């Protein structure tokens, strides 16, 4: 390797090297407590216990999102209250805060792609939730917009681990004939957490002020962090731990050739994933859905309160209850329907296309045509049902359309794509539109129109999915993928 190439390797390795000492110390401590951490599953493990643990973590993580968006915590300029009132934030600046959260989440998701090849993914979830708790405390201590912005990025960075790594674990644990329903059940808890966060944020902030809910969240995270860092860990199928006697194994497993480091591993994995068009259409098709969910989550209670002149508590509680009901019915219904239709890639894309079409029509009708709060909630409920119906097919197709070794990378790319193009720009975009139009009906309807893109991309994917390979229960394809990605020069050097 030439000196210039070595320099590039060192630069690529920098992001990972900054966190290596922390992760290595965590694994060393865990090995002292549980020295027999080889191939056998830990005594505490059953598939249902693992599911319960991840559902609890997701609920807690998304409780923060609902809490932050609640009228009690987020507040308003007139009357002056909560975060927006205390820090005198415009609608656009207020909308930037959830975008900062997503930026932190996306950046860490990309880093996790390389870290899972070197450290146990279960431990990474513990590290992430510890970071999440620190970020929650920082939110409660924030003294202005910029400190709160950094705190929200920290919370997002911590949340990335459970969002990126939970689906591959559940794909391993779920019974083959019920995988869609397991994905659906797991996907219910983010929505439940957001909805519960509306109630939680409103109730606690009303009694103790908007800072206290964040301190309580951090307290709730302590037992989760302790268990995921100290209990005997579970590992992902298809993930081979590098051997100390072979320094080159790690790079070979990552498929990075002569280069190592998080950037080269990530780029290599992205090259592989972009050879699977069904995965890409599934991921990009979900972007407008994620944008709508992100905007509704953040602006929904405030929009309902101002459109129909309802008290903030009624708006928070009604939108929260509507989110709970539609998320459970829609997400579980999507998993059930996919299993009943036959859990194939083509059926997953078909169900997603139909769900997006229903959501498009119903959400536009709710915001543009409804003239009473009751009718608005009923029609919006149908739209939310359509949005949530697409959740289980999203995760199922993203797991089955790529080789098993690429599942953590596929989830990282999925998270980056749907957040970078979806709910990162959506809240500030809607906030900026509202600042200009001063009409919540038009501001939200413009965003909802983007669901046309979802319907189109899923429809394109339906015929492609019919002939695309389904990687469930297939033998390892990593060697084939790596060989097909080699350049002619690399092949000549190998011989």
Automatic annotation (TrEMBL):
Similarity annotation: Belongs to the major facilitator superfamily. Spinster (TC 2.A.1.49) family.
Membrane as UniProt keyword: yes
Species for this entry: Apatococcus lobatus
Record lineage: Eukaryota, Viridiplantae, Chlorophyta, core chlorophytes, Trebouxiophyceae
Main location (coarse class): membrane
Origin superkingdom: Eukaryota
Keyword terms, alphabetized: Membrane, Transmembrane, Transmembrane helix, Transport
Transmembrane segments: 50-71, 91-112, 124-143, 182-200, 212-231, 278-299, 319-338, 350-367, 373-400, 442-465
Topology with respect to the bilayer: Multi-pass membrane protein
Gene3D superfamilies: MFS general substrate transporter like domains
Record region (Disordered): 238-260
Molecular functions (GO terms): transmembrane transporter activity
Protein name: Major facilitator superfamily (MFS) profile domain-containing protein
């Amino acid at each position: 390797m030439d000196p210039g190439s070595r320099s590039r390797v060192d630069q690529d390795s920098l992001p990972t090297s900054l966190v290596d000492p922390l992760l290595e110390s965590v694994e060393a401590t865990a090995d002292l407590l549980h020295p027999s951490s080889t191939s056998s599953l830990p005594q505490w493990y059953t598939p249902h216990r693992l599911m319960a643990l991840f559902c609890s973590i997701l609920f807690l993580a998304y409780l923060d999102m609902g809490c932050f968006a609640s009228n009690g915590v987020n507040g308003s300029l007139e009357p002056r209250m909560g975060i927006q009132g205390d820090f005198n934030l415009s609608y656009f600046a207020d909308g930037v805060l959830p975008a900062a959260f997503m930026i932190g989440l996306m950046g860490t998701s990309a880093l996790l792609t390389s870290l899972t090849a070197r450290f146990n993914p279960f431990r990474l979830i513990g590290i992430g939730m510890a970071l999440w708790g620190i970020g929650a405390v920082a939110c409660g201590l924030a003294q202005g917009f910029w400190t709160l912005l950094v705190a929200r990025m920290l919370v997002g960075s911590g949340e990335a681990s459970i969002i990126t790594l939970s689906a591959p674990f559940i794909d391993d644990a779920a019974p083959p004939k019920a995988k869609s329903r397991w994905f659906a059940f797991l996907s219910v808890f983010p929505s439940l957490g957001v909805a519960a966060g509306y109630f939680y944020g409103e109730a606690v902030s009303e009694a103790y002020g908007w800072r206290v809910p964040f301190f309580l969240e951090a307290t709730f995270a302590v037992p989760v962090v302790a268990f995921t860092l100290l209990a005997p860990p579970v590992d992902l199928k298809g993930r081979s731990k590098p051997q100390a006697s072979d320094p080159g194994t790690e790079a070979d497993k990552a498929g990075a050739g002569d280069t190592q480091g998080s950037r080269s591993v990530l780029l290599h994995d992205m090259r592989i994933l972009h050879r699977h068009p069904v995965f890409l259409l599934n991921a990009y098709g979900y972007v407008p859905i994620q944008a709508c969910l992100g905007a509704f989550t953040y602006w929904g209670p405030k929009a309902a309160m101002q459109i129909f002149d309802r008290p903030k508590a009624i708006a928070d509680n009604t939108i929260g209850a509507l989110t709970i009901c539609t998320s459970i019915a829609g997400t579980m219904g999507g998993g059930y329907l996919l299993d009943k239709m036959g859990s194939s890639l083509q059926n997953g894309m078909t169900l997603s296309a139909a769900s997006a079409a229903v959501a498009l029509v119903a959400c536009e009708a709710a915001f543009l045509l409804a003239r009473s709060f009751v009718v608005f909630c009923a029609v919006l409920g149908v739209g939310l049902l359509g949005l949530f119906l697409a959740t289980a097919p999203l995760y199922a197709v993203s797991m089955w359309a790529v080789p098993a070794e690429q599942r953590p990378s596929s989830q990282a790319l999925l998270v980056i794509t749907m957040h970078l193009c979806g709910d990162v720009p959506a809240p500030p975009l809607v906030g900026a539109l509202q600042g200009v139009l001063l009409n919540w009906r038009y501001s939200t309807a413009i965003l909802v129109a983007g669901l046309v893109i979802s319907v189109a991309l899923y429809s394109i994917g339906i015929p492609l999915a019919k002939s695309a390979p389904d990687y469930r229960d297939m033998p390892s394809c990593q060697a084939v993928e790596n060989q097909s990605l080699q350049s002619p020069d690399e092949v000549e050097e190998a011989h």
